[in-house]
Amino acid sequence: xxxIQGSKVSVIGAGAVGATTAYALLTRxxxxxxxxxxxxxxxxxxxxxxxxxxxxxxxxxxxxxxxxASVCADSDVIVFTAGAKQKPGQSRLELAETTIKLAQQVxxxxxxxxxxAIIIMVTNPVDxxxxxxxxxxxxxxxxxxxxxxxxxxxxxxxxxAQATGVAVQNVHAYIAGEHGDSEIPLWSTAxxxxxxxxxxxxxxxxxxxxxxxxxRIAHEVVHSAYQIxxxxxxxxxxxxxxxxxxVEAILGDERRILPVSTLATxxxxxxxxxxxxxxIVDRRGCDMRLDTPISDEEEAGLxxxxxxxxxxxxxxxx
Length: 318
Prior knowledge:
40% of the residues lie in helices and 17% in strands. The chain is an alpha/beta fold. It has a six-stranded parallel beta sheet, with helices on both faces. Helix 3 (96-113) links the parallel strand 4 (77-80) and strand 5. Helix 1 (16-27) crosses helix 7 (237-251), helix 3 packs across helix 4 and helix 5 crosses helix 6. The model has no long low-confidence stretch (mean pLDDT 93). This is L-lactate dehydrogenase. Pfam families: Ldh_1_C (PF02866), Ldh_1_N (PF00056). It is an enzyme of class 1 (oxidoreductase).
């Protein structure tokens, strides 16, 4: 039996990210039931109706919605996208206070109606919110984690593919640390078709991926969200797809390696924070981090990212 059959995924928040995630879940056939929850009844009802009208063109699934936690009862996975909207020029960490309070209000009811659900926190600043959510719910770290740098790593792979002229599916590279300004690319373990990126011989018509190119790519990965928000108000398509990919890894028990945001205490001397590292995601959620080899420079960057996140966490008394 397909493990996705009979499964239920609930999405909290019917804004741009939540609605797009629900759309991606339906078009990819990721679950048999998709539930959308939002305090704005008119908005959630409209989104559900619009999504339902496309049912003929998607794999068989039910789309339901509501304004309280009961609509999420018995979910296998809960995707939390509700929160304050990021404004142009505003950093993710500046969003923390409002979103933390919202998560603390909503999560206990969700855990009550779906105690076995794997919860994926997507709302920014995702690492800080994920840490607060763990403290609020008391759930084990494998059962609640953040979308982390899955999207950032996709951006990194896309830009490497563009710079080298190869298919993005043949690029393997990860962003680690904060989902935000202090994140770092793990260049030392990046590969193209199994070949180390740092040893890559450029194809005709393409420049070497030297330090200057790598710095440009890293800068674009970090700042592309700001560019998108400036132009259209929100990032939603790529994060909707990235989140759906995480959901599929859980429901399909895939043991897929994804850089999700988990409690990273003790890794390379990191204090008690949630940040992203390549980890195994399966039906149990995320309960194993890879012992990824990193260079001294990458380790320094990762520790700096952890310190920045820890400082923010402490501002909220967590």
